[in-house]
């Protein structure tokens, strides 16, 4: 029985490797298709400049809010074609005051509004409130710690204008602004580079699948209204609305040149709570959309659900099962010398042990190849230092994903048994 379970776990991991290889191939094709250099100082005029409402949800963000709003005010987009709504959401610090101070520093003529909000619903609640008063044809969202690059909005609008009927939204790339702070931020930077440069590009190149991120995206206001807005209180409102857009037959386009620079957690405590919330939120969205694997919804939804199920459930379970059997096996082998009557779960040196080692080597090699391609495609990231961090992070940081996922699953099971939702929005600490 254990041998069979062990083999199934290994086969599952191999299937996930195939998925990774397919995505990697798509990412590499995308990279080679966009190698040309464009002079960003002389960008061509757009066919039109839609009015945009940029929303900045901010809960106790006095440390970073001025940098973000200043970057938004300096966007390379006609100033009379976008408005800025900064929501000081249930704040007990000086977030609102900091934005008002900034407006007085040479921006009094700009369409910048500070709204002190005391409602519920978290970030999704803020976005739904903004949806009611926004004057723009498109809504753009920037988290309080995510300062956009000067041309970010230009590139987002440029992308949706390629096919405005199909492209209901466009999203850009997010980069780590504090990646040199410590070991944790360097590892987060590696993860983000890989996600932005390989996973997002690969899925878009091969399947025209995009995902709304938490920040640095625009979305058609009329389309959002037609699908009922954001899911109030959702832990991952971005994933939830991505599925809603796909169910409506719309595409979320990748604008790979639209970049924003965001601050990442600098402590393990902040990282753990942030990622556990993300994992929990993704679990809830997956469970809600699991039924679409078997109905007549568009194939992109089925593929996305399958991808998430493999990543968060099937693959995680296979890793946990195979590692548990392997380490128990090592422990039993070590005491077998003292107690010969003790038997191993799987015979060391046998075919299954060889399969495990081959499996591990394939995973490690694929990880290194994927990471180095991602780093090489991002200006300034292909360094010896980052390569060394890539090696170390595989055995440390990368394993945290399993721990966080299991913890989120335990929380969900607990809430199911008790009938009470204990998970709340965790405010990521700023530095």
**Mean pLDDT over all positions:** 88
Proportion of strand residues: 5-15%
Which regions are unreliable across 5 or more consecutive residues at pLDDT < 50?
none
Distance between the termini: 51 Å
Q: How are the strands of the biggest sheet laid out side by side? A: 3-2-1-4-7-6-8-5
> What is the structural class?
alpha/beta
Q: What's the shape?
A: globular
Task: Work out the radius of gyration.
Answer: 23 Å
- Helical fraction: 40-55%
Structure, explained:
- With about 425 residues, this protein is an alpha/beta fold.
- Helix content is about 55%, strand content about 15%.
- The chain has helices at about 1-35, 65-75, 95-105, 120-135, 150-160, 185-205, 220-225, 235-245, 270-290, 300-335, 350-375, 385-395, 395-420, and strands at about 50-60, 80-90, 110-115, 140, 145-150, 165-175, 215-220, 250-260.
- An eight-stranded mixed β-sheet has the order 3-2-1-4-7-6-8-5, with helices on both faces.
- α6 (about 185-205) packs across α12.
- The chain starts with a helix and ends in a 13-residue tail after the last helix.
- The model has no long low-confidence stretch (mean pLDDT about 90).
List its salient traits.
alpha/beta, 431 residues, eight-stranded mixed β-sheet, globular
Provide a brief overview of the structure:
The protein is α/β, with parallel strands linked by helices and 431 residues long. The chain has helices at residues 2-33, 65-73, 95-103, 122-133, 152-160, 183-207, 221-226, 237-247, 268-289, 299-336, 351-376, 384-395, 397-418, and strands at 52-58, 82-89, 112-117, 138-141, 146-148, 167-176, 217-220, 251-262. It has 13 helices and eight strands.
